[in-house]
Amino acid sequence: MTPKYFDIHSHLHFPAFSEDIGEVMKRTLDSGTWVVNVGTSKKTSEEAIALAHKYNEGVYATVGLHPIHTDKSHHDESESSGDLIETEFDYEFYKKIALDPKVVAIGECGLDFYHLGEDSKKKQIENFEKHIDLSLDVGKPLMLHIRDAYVEALEILNTKYKIQDTNKPRGNVHFFAGDLEIAKKFLDLGFTLSFTGVITYPKSKKYGASDYEEIIKMIPLDMIMAETDAPYVAPVPHRGERNESLYVINVIKKIAEIKKLPFEEVASVLVKNSLRVFGI
Q: Which of 116, 197, 207, 228 fits a disulfide with 120 by CB distance 3.0 to 4.6 angstroms?
């Protein structure tokens, strides 16, 4: 079966959905929407895999350590009620679970320099490089989380890893919020970019890029994917509510509107992109 829509970055395994996850998943799959639930720690990575295995198709997982969990930082209770801090990336642990057939990517990983000191930045860089090594090791793409650190992330990908011509890093930049110049640099490396419900909001620098429309207009459609980042940033008309994968339809509608293309065409291409990138 081929899905109608694909939410390539969600967290339906978080406690925010613990009371009604069965209903949420039924709504999602009944709508023809497939989903990748993204790990952010050992605990949430294992939970993403467990949820994926409850369904024969349409539900997948990623495994990785979110950059903010390499040090003390604010953690949303909707992610986990437990301690998610892992100062060092446990390579062998993540490699073992990354080999699960339901795992389609490594991450979310990357750099998040929002309100961090230099020591934390160094630790994040070391852990990011280990994720890249793991991605190359197991042959699965990266799911990147980059905040206030696009230049630094590109530097790592361009210097340490670009020389590996036969085995370059590949993957997707989740919740892209850079400018057009940064977008082009990731595209040049072969990375796709995914967008959330934030593109349905009025223009605001709060979420990074000040003009998503300019960026989406310029990016080739075959290099774009749609996501929700549920339970966060629900798109209009659900803004302020708990987000869920079903609402990825609203993100796709906005991309189609910006591109001035039929919704069905855009939805179909984004699904093909998702299947291609994640090898499904």
A: 116
- Write out the DSSP string of 36-75: EEE--SHHHHHHHHHHHTTSSSSEEEEE---GGGGS----
Q: Residues with Cβ < 8 Å from 206, sequence gap 6 or more?
A: none
Residue 26: how many CB atoms within 10 A of its CB? 11
The pair of three-digit structure tokens given for residue 118, joined into one six-digit string: 């230099």
How many C-beta neighbours within 10 Å does residue 275 have?
15
**What length does the chain have?**
280
Residues 44-99: pLDDT tens digits?
A: 999 999 999 999 999 999 999 999 888 765 555 555 555 567 778 999 999 999 99
Sheet order of strands, 224-226 included: 5-10, 33-38, 59-63, 103-112, 142-147, 171-174, 192-195, 224-226
pTM: 0.94
